[in-house]
Amino acid sequence: DEKINNVGPSIEYYKSRHKQIIEFIETVKNENVVKIFPNILFDNDNVKVIENSRALYFDNNHLDLYGASLIVNEILSLSDNPCIVDIATVVLILLEVAVSSVKFVSKLYS
After folding, report:
1. What is the largest CA-CA distance in the chain?
2. Which entry of 56, 78, 83, 109 is 20 to 30 Å from 6 by CA?
């Protein structure tokens, strides 16, 4: 199972693919802004695409509900600010609605 978790692209590839976004985020200089990088998705030298036998992405670039929930939970763990917790909870709910909508539309056309 450990080998299955390491089938994703290298972290170096991830960083090169997202270079402009990472550089932009690093330019933000505001003490009220918390920068969150998806380190929870990294495993040794690779980007995890599977964890606990569950896929983290629904395509080659977008997290699925489970993958997104890992990031949301990371955000929640970094803050005791109730506003942040509420926003992260809303994001998770919106992701669940989006996934449900995609599944519904897929059933219509299958």
Report:
1. 49
2. 78
Instruction: State the burial class of residue 56 (Cβ atoms within 10 Å of its Cβ: 0-12, 13-18, 19+).
Output: buried
| pTM, entire model | 0.63
CA distance 53 to 37: 23
Closest CA to 102 of 58, 56, 55, 51: 58
Lowest mean pLDDT among 5-19, 57-71, 73-87: 73-87
CB atoms within 10 A of CB 95: 19
How many CB atoms sit inside 10 A of residue 39's CB? 8
Closest CA to 52 of 69, 31, 37: 69
